């Protein structure tokens, strides 16, 4: 692991202040204001999590309070179990049941009708549903799946999965240039916390010819405001504090590009009808 103290000292000379946080937050406020009044921003749901015996031999209910938070993406909800989800601040994303085989919890969540994507953050789980699915019908099964998993004591990612789905992209390596180190430090300390507050995340994919490549994940992946967040929030901040950065672009995997092409074809067919 590369030492971060000298890096933070260099970043501090570029006047990293509370203004940087405000830059990103100004992008988020309009989306937060659009959240439905019918769905509270924060809900706490006590979920039965087995029995325990007190010193007098009487059995007592043991509960887990699972909080839910809305996100700017109406098809994504953030579930907070009140305990650590991923180790070492890493994240993991699963986009289908086949990909979820490496995680007992993700596998169980994909067995619920309407679940389209699962994202694990340090202390939360973001569920993305199909557009026609109804949260009120899905929530009881989601609560049950999360409760059963944490009661089982199983690892969040199977030990024999070779780290499938795990990401720790902002770890600074010894061969990283000074600019790349500063980009990773800014992403990790200033930008990522705000993105994760909305149930999403960003993954660093590279820095080439002044362009930073980032992949949006979790609730941000399918959010209508993702482009605004990427350009008006992240790009402005990186360009302001790191002059070597000239642009920020979204990175797509092969399956993402295929999905986008199919979506554009469908749009054209509907337009021509």
UniProtKB/TrEMBL annotation:
Residues annotated as domain Scaffold protein Nfu/NifU N-terminal: 66-153
GO cellular component: mitochondrion
Protein's GO biological process: iron-sulfur cluster assembly
MF terms (GO), sorted A to Z: iron ion binding; iron-sulfur cluster binding
Gene3D superfamilies to which the protein is assigned, alphabetical: Fe-S cluster assembly (FSCA), Scaffold protein Nfu/NifU, N-terminal domain
Family: Belongs to the NifU family.
Protein name per the record: Scaffold protein Nfu/NifU N-terminal domain-containing protein
Originating organism: Lunasporangiospora selenospora
């Amino acid at each position: 692991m590369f030492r971060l103290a000298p890096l933070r000292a260099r970043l501090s000379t570029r006047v990293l202040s509370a203004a940087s946080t405000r830059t990103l937050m100004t992008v988020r406020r309009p989306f937060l204001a659009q959240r439905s009044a019918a769905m509270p921003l924060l809900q706490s749901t006590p979920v039965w999590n087995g029995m325990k015996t007190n010193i007098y031999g009487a059995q007592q209910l043991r509960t887990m309070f699972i909080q839910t938070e809305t996100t700017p993406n109406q098809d994504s909800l953030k579930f907070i179990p009140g305990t650590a989800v991923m180790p070492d601040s890493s994240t993991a994303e699963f986009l289908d049941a086949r990909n979820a085989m490496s995680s007992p919890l993700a596998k169980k969540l994909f067995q619920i009708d309407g679940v389209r994507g699962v994202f694990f953050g340090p202390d939360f789980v973001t569920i993305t549903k199909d557009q026609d699915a109804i949260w009120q019908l899905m929530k009881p099964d989601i609560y049950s799946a999360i409760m059963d998993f944490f009661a089982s004591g199983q690892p969040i990612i199977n030990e024999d999965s070779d780290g499938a789905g795990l990401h720790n992209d902002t770890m600074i390596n010894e061969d990283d240039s000074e600019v790349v180190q500063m980009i990773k430090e800014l992403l990790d300390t200033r930008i990522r916390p705000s993105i994760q507050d909305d149930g999403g995340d960003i993954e660093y994919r590279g820095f080439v010819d002044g362009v930073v490549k980032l992949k949006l994940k979790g609730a941000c992946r399918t959010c209508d405001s993702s482009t605004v967040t990427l350009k008006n929030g992240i790009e402005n901040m990186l360009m302001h504090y790191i002059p070597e950065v000239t642009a920020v672009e979204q990175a797509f995997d092969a399956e993402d590009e295929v999905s986008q092409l199919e979506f554009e074809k469908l749009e054209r067919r509907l337009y021509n009808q």
